Amino acid sequence: MESRRSNPMTEEESSGLIAARRIKQLSSHISPDVTAPSSSLPLVQTEVCSARSKKLEVNGQALSLYMKGKHMDIQEKIYEYFNSRPDLQTPIEISKEDHRELCMNQLRGLVREAGIKPLRYVTEDPAKYFAIVEAVGSVDMSLGIKLGVQYSLWGGSVINLGTKKHKDKYFDGIDNLEYTGCFAMTELHHGSNVQGLQTTATFDPLKDEFIIDTPHDGAIKWWIGNAAVHGKFATVFARLILPTHDSKGVSDMGVHAFIVPIRDMKTHQTLPGVEIQDCGHKVGLNGVDNGALRFRSMRIPRDNLLNRFGDVARDGKYTSSLPTINKRFAATLGELVGGRVGLAYASVGVLKISATIAIRYSLLRQQFGPPKQPEVSILDYQSQQHKLMPMLASTYAYHFATVYLVEKYSEMKKTHEEQLVADVHALSAGLKSYITSYTAKALSVCREACGGHGYAAVNRFGSLRNDHDIFQTFEGDNTVLLQQVAADLLKQYKEKFQGGTLTVTWSYLRESMNSYLSQPNPVTARWEGEDHLRDPKFQLDAFRYRTSRLLQSVAMRLNKHTKTLGTFGAWNRCLNHLLTLAESHIETVILARFIDAVKNCSEPSARAALKLACDLYALDRIWNDIGTYRNVDYVAPNKAKAIHKLTEYLSFQVRTVAKELVDAFELPDHVTRAPIAMQSDAYAQYTQVVGF
């Protein structure tokens, strides 16, 4: 009351001052003084952290160069092109129809104006192709998927499953977008079970043609990208039916791929024998025109069979270098594994974007603080660090793992070595499944970490989450893919005990299985020193021990249940155990690649930052599954407690270099175009969005 008498003012003046103060405070939260280094903000930290911590000075340029790799030039060219063409940037609010046309115009501009022609890289330089996909997908995920449908799926199927005559006829048209196309594999009743597809391609020897038919509604090709609006051709997967002279009259040769024209090249009208419907509005990726295809006695020339693994002569005789349907099917799918490689790689790109937005916002946003002191950055709260710092460490781990996967895939495309093909198949299945599942969850965590502002569409989490969600399903359902990894591990396990040679990725099992069969060392189980816990050997041994233990135990369970339930029943009984085994193995592979990446980084400060992230990734995973290690006394209680404390400390340490770590991704502003994460004019931009 004394204050009011000494400073009299009207009610309107008082309200105005309060409003002005609140606006100023909000402005400082969203757009603080960017000239002040992040380290000048007061830190909320425990005494132990304060005593032990010394901020690492990171050479950001060296770290960025190490992360970006050899294809940064073409990515920067893509970013520069779209930055120079604001008319080709996707607005926040856009209809399905407009988004589809914009997406096609974006692709045409990229190919015909920017001169980015990806098709030759699909086989000649896959690493460069995936770098293009990552950059394009960060501009608009729909564009990344549409590009993938055109070049990796439609174009890739022609190149990889066809022969010289197909490449000569179609390559240039696919490359310059004259021959826009689809990849028609999935059917209404069959997605993951490709061998169960029902579409038929029956050879007519009189007219030297195949007749493509959809025998029933369940065989309608469904979710086919590029089909609803833009596609002129489709690679159609169908059962090859040949006439025979026996009592059956026909022979089913299994699933093969065929080039089927679906629209007139001049008028763009749907061709006779083809019916096309629109799959409509989706949860995300509405720039991609997914459609449904039905064929009614659609005739195509015999030459339209993509005949690399099996051919039909003029007289109807079938020939193949592969003796069985299963081997031909495996070879066909093996050539299509690049789609999984690309999705794993692209998913890491999405994770980089979302982590960057959330972490930059958390560095800028200030809330609460000690009495009579300035408010502090919300990233200085342990709870926020717990949400975001292991995620940042994981982003780095997955980056190096997918770079390794791309290298192995590129080597496979050059050598076609049989064992390498099998290795890449299982590795791509595991990494695609594991990383896309993690990114899907991480997107929700990032949104929540940004509070109410994270819910604004302009800040991208909603569109990123919706567009990425299907990554868990297409190119192989994640649960199905993990089962493929588990099946391969069991095959390797069996061969190990029969004296066989393990593949490179799986070779650690020989040594760790021997370790598993012995009892844990009671001495090392109690070691709790920081040097020991941060030793890569301890971390990798722990991961490998867990995988070996899971493999041994599930093999015994399967053997037991098979006797009473049969093979299928036993597998289903142990399914969750098998999925856990597959995830454990993939985490082991990821950690091994991260450790190698740390060793191979030559710049000391960058290597030290990577080592922090690697240690956090490893120990956070061990702590999250600490029950497994405690149950078998691999880790004693005192050691478990030490792991927990060190994980919290490492989260804090990674927070001190979080800005440098996200800046090393070098994502341009129009990619991380979330006003809440921008370093300048954030308040002005954000308030303009809502009309101030």
TrEMBL record:
The keyword Oxidoreductase applies. GO terms for biological process: fatty acid metabolic process. FAD binds at residues 186, 225. It is found in: Peroxisome. The keyword Lipid metabolism applies. Pfam families: ACOX, ACOX_C_alpha1, Acyl-CoA_dh_M. GO terms for cellular component: peroxisome. Keywords: FAD, Fatty acid metabolism, Flavoprotein, Lipid metabolism, Oxidoreductase, Peroxisome, Transit peptide. It comes from the Eukaryota. Its cofactor is FAD. Residues 182-297 form the Acyl-CoA oxidase/dehydrogenase middle domain. Residues 535-679 form the Acyl-CoA oxidase C-terminal domain. Residues 334-489 form the Acyl-CoA oxidase C-alpha1 domain. The active site is at 475 (proton acceptor). GO terms for molecular function: oxidoreductase activity. CDD domains: AXO. Belongs to the acyl-CoA oxidase family. PANTHER family: ACYL-COENZYME A OXIDASE, ELECTRON TRANSPORT OXIDOREDUCTASE. This is Acyl-coenzyme A oxidase. It comes from Cardamine amara subsp. amara.
